[in-house]
């Protein structure tokens, strides 16, 4: 009979524990506060929850961009035919412009936190380099041209639509996290199965002389 100290029979790896991503910074006693902040931020950004949060922000921003684009087409169509343009269309566009500026600030903050957490190694990927450039340029355009030159609004739209590719990248990262969790769980079950077989064989061998 297995004793309570048998680790593979009594220790269960919960799904929640499998979701924790590895923390790459060395964990030492009495480490500085900034180092602990970096560890916490890096752990969150590498987690599934962090990927899904960024995915949600990007999705909402892209949806607002498409909504603003469709409203602009509608306003242009009404203006072309000499029809009256309701005040609500303009108010909606102003609200969406403010929302877009807020999202640009959030993505800029996310970029700074990411660079602070991962360091220069974050830019080892060309995708991350280009994505950082898009975030910086979009933020600059949003701040500098907000309410000044509507002719350059298409540039903002193009820059924001690049974030569609970031949605794909975040989905791939989330899928990789899920696959890694399954691999860890399969390996744990394989080891437990091997352990149980060994104990069963030992029990059968001990029972043979009694027969």
Automatic annotation (TrEMBL):
**Which InterPro entries is this protein grouped with?**
Hvcn1, Ion_trans_dom, Volt_channel_dom_sf
GO MF term set: voltage-gated proton channel activity
Membrane-crossing ranges are 52-75, 95-118
Keyword line: Cell membrane, Coiled coil, Ion channel, Ion transport, Membrane, Transmembrane, Transmembrane helix, Transport, Voltage-gated channel
Lineage top rank: taxon: Eukaryota
Single GO cellular component term? plasma membrane
Q: What is its main location?
A: membrane
From the Swiss-Prot or TrEMBL record, state where the protein is found.
Answer: Cell membrane
What Pfam family is a match for this entry? Ion_trans
Q: In what residue span(s) does the Ion transport domain sit?
A: 94-172
Q: Which residues form a coiled coil?
A: 168-199
According to Swiss-Prot or TrEMBL, what is its membrane topology? Multi-pass membrane protein
**PANTHER family (alphabetical):** F20B24.22, VOLTAGE-GATED HYDROGEN CHANNEL 1
**Protein name as annotated:** Voltage-gated hydrogen channel 1
């Amino acid at each position: 009979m297995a004793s309570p100290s048998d680790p593979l029979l009594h220790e269960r790896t919960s799904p929640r524990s499998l979701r924790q991503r590895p923390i790459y910074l060395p964990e030492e006693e009495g480490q500085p506060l900034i180092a602990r902040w970096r560890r916490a931020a890096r752990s969150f950004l590498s987690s599934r929850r962090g990927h899904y949060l960024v995915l949600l922000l990007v999705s909402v921003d892209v949806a607002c961009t498409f909504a603003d684009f469709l409203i602009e087409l509608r306003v242009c169509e009404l203006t072309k035919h000499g029809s009256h343009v309701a005040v609500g269309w303009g108010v909606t566009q102003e609200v969406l412009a403010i929302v877009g500026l807020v999202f640009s600030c959030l993505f800029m903050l996310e970029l700074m936190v990411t660079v602070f957490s991962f360091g220069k190694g974050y830019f080892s990927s060309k995708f991350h380099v280009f994505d950082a450039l898009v975030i910086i340029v979009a933020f600059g355009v949003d701040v500098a041209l907000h309410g000044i030159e509507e002719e350059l609004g298409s540039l903002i739209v193009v820059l924001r639509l690049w974030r569609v590719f970031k949605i794909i990248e975040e989905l791939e990262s989330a899928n990789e996290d899920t696959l890694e969790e399954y691999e860890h769980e399969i390996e744990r079950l394989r080891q437990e199965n091997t352990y149980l077989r060994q104990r069963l064989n030992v029990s059968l061998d001990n029972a043979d002389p009694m027969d």
